[in-house]
From TrEMBL:
Origin superkingdom: Bacteria
GO molecular function: mRNA 3'-UTR AU-rich region binding; NADPH binding; oxidoreductase activity, acting on the CH-OH group of donors, NAD or NADP as acceptor; quinone reductase (NADPH) activity; zinc ion binding
Similarity remark: Belongs to the zinc-containing alcohol dehydrogenase family.
SMART domains linked: PKS_ER
GO cellular component term of the entry, any: cytosol
UniProt name for this protein: Quinone oxidoreductase
Keyword annotations of the record: Metal-binding, NADP, Oxidoreductase, Zinc
Organism this protein belongs to: Pararobbsia silviterrae
InterPro entries according to UniProt: ADH-like_C, ADH-like_N, ADH_Zn_CS, ER, GroES-like_sf, NAD(P)-bd_dom_sf, QOR-like
Signal peptide interval: none
Enoyl reductase (ER) domain boundaries: 13-324
Annotated Pfam families: ADH_N (PF08240), ADH_zinc_N (PF00107)
Cofactor requirements of the protein: Zn(2+)
Length: 326
């Protein structure tokens, strides 16, 4: 057996409920491999699950994505070997660990040109951006695209990818400094959504035209405005709720706002099979290698400082991706 360290929850609450536990990690079983993790990705979903907004059965680990090196291979694994560098984003809760056993079918081999910390910072977020611009709404040249929270980890990648597909990208962010980051990430225009007139400013920025698609990961504080800035028959794509859940509303409002399409997608169903996962991953790696998207690491924390990582994320004091090192 191998000694491992992981974060565990026995209750929901603030960052202090996360406890580090040492345990004996058994050899990988059939179809599994054992990974020594070198970089762990943070996603705001981790906060939702820690606080109980998206409750998990306890006790539970936390974390969805990490990169690392295969150290042992279980029976019936044919496509991975000891020493392979891999990344995952949906191998079961528990990425906050220095070692773990993972189903081989959930792993993707890393290309030589992508460092482990870049993979941990990029993979989940880029796989999210990938389905948003390629499947939920297929962004085309000439589209007007609005990206809320454009200075965040997903927002920067999403903005850059939409721009590379030929769209005019209007980003929103919560401060002038974050608007600068959004512009640097690829937004043609960035608007501070903490100002009371942000809806009018977004519409003015596109010459009075409204958006073909609005990507909203903020939720409660931006949703009404998202409906107002979407063009008739446009799409409002809610894929997160950083400011809180959207209150119930009369669905006829979508008709009154211009026969809008509203959807609440998730990355996991879009990568539910091995073939989908690996095809979409190839698309992400190709976009990275071509320079269409990039990783922006905003902060790094050790696994021993995991509480600080969550505090920084919840206070919105960071921009770009948070990477946790075991």
């Amino acid at each position: 057996m191998t000694q491992a360290l992981a974060v565990q929850l026995t209750e929901f609450g603030g960052p202090e409920v996360m406890k580090r536990v040492s345990f004996e990690l058994p050899p990988p079983g059939s179809g599994d491999v054992q990974i020594r993790q070198t970089a762990i990705g943070f996603n705001y979903l981790d906060v939702y699950q820690r606080t109980g907004r998206y409750p998990l059965p306890t006790p539970t680990g936390l974390g969805h994505e990490a990169a690392g090196v295969v150290e042992a291979v279980g029976p019936d694994v044919g496509d991975l070997r000891v020493g392979d560098r891999v990344v995952y984003m949906n191998a079961g809760i528990g990425a906050y660990a220095d070692r773990r056993n993972v189903p081989a079918a959930k792993l993707v081999k890393l290309p030589d040109g992508m460092a482990d910390d870049v993979a941990a910072a990029l993979f989940f977020k880029a796989m999210t951006a990938q389905y948003l611009v390629k499947t939920t709404y297929r962004v085309r040249a000439g589209d007007i695209v609005v990206v809320h929270a454009a200075a965040g980890g997903v927002g920067q990648i999403l903005s850059a990818w939409a721009k590379a597909l030929g769209a005019t990208v209007i980003g929103t962010a919560g401060s002038p400094a974050k608007c600068e980051i959004a512009r640097a990430a690829g937004c043609d225009i960035a608007i501070d959504y903490s100002t009371p007139d942000w809806v009018a400013r977004v519409i003015d920025a596109s010459g009075g035209k409204k958006a073909h698609v609005v990507y909203d990961s903020v939720g409660r504080s931006t949703f009404d405005g998202s409906l107002d800035i979407a063009a008739p028959f446009g799409y409002v794509v809610v894929y997160g709720a950083a400011s809180g859940p959207i209150p119930p509303f009369d669905i006829d409002l979508l008709n009154r706002k211009g026969c809008l399409f509203l959807t609440r997608p998730s990355v996991f169903p879009h990568n539910a099979t091995v073939d989908l996962l690996r095809a979409n991953a190839r698309d992400v790696f190709d976009a990275y290698e071509k320079g269409l998207i990039r990783a922006q690491i905003g902060a790094r924390f050790g696994l021993q400082d995991i509480e600080r990582a969550h505090i920084a994320a919840e206070s919105r004091s960071t921009t770009g991706a948070i990477v946790i090192t075991p």
